[in-house]
Design a protein that fits this description.
The chain has 159 residues and is mostly beta strands. It is built from one helix and nine strands; from the N terminus they run H-E-E-E-E-E-E-E-E-E. A nine-stranded antiparallel β-sheet has the order 4-3-2-1-9-8-7-6-5, with no helix packed on it. The protein is globular, with a radius of gyration of 19 Å.
């Protein structure tokens, strides 16, 4: 029994720590490789300006001349299955090398929750953002979707 505990401890100590990506910088959507331009309301231009610290991430997203700025505290990953956020709750957490940012809120009077998963390419020149928005209206109809998802690719803007 003691040998098993020693072996488990040795494996845990010798495993390398997961290196966390740093998303700080300016990012421009690559429309030809993104899903947003193909949505019902096409979004053909989008930029992110990100300030990423150890305890929080600030996202400034600009599209159609409008900028939305949000700060997300980085917390421990919630245990699955985690309920969608509501109200004005915000959080960010690591899922392996992917940084997930979630928030609750309202759009056109409807309670919604959103989730964005950010990943960097191996060389750090591209960021992929997978977005999921869920409308929490409290009922469901057979075959009806209460969510929308899209995957966009961004190129780092040189300084």
């Amino acid at each position: 029994m003691h040998l098993v505990l020693v072996l488990v401890a040795a494996v845990l100590v010798t495993q390398p720590a997961v290196e966390r990506a740093n998303f700080t910088g300016s990012w421009q959507m690559v429309a030809a490789r993104s899903g947003s331009p193909t949505q019902n309301a096409p979004v053909t231009e989008m930029t992110f300006v990100i300030d990423h610290a150890a305890d929080q991430i600030r996202l400034d997203m600009t599209t159609a001349g409008r900028t939305l700025s949000e700060v997300y505290p980085i917390v421990a990953a919630p245990k699955a299955p985690a309920d969608p956020l509501s109200g004005d709750e915000r959080r960010a957490f690591w899922d392996g090398t992917r940084l997930v940012v979630e928030r609750g809120g309202t759009i056109s009077g409807q309670t919604v929750s959103s989730r964005q998963s950010l990943t960097l390419s191996a060389d750090g020149s591209e960021m992929t953002v997978e977005r999921l928005v869920i409308v929490q209206h409290g009922y469901s109809l057979r075959g009806a979707r209460n969510y929308a998802s899209v995957k966009d690719v961004f190129a780092r803007v040189p300084r």
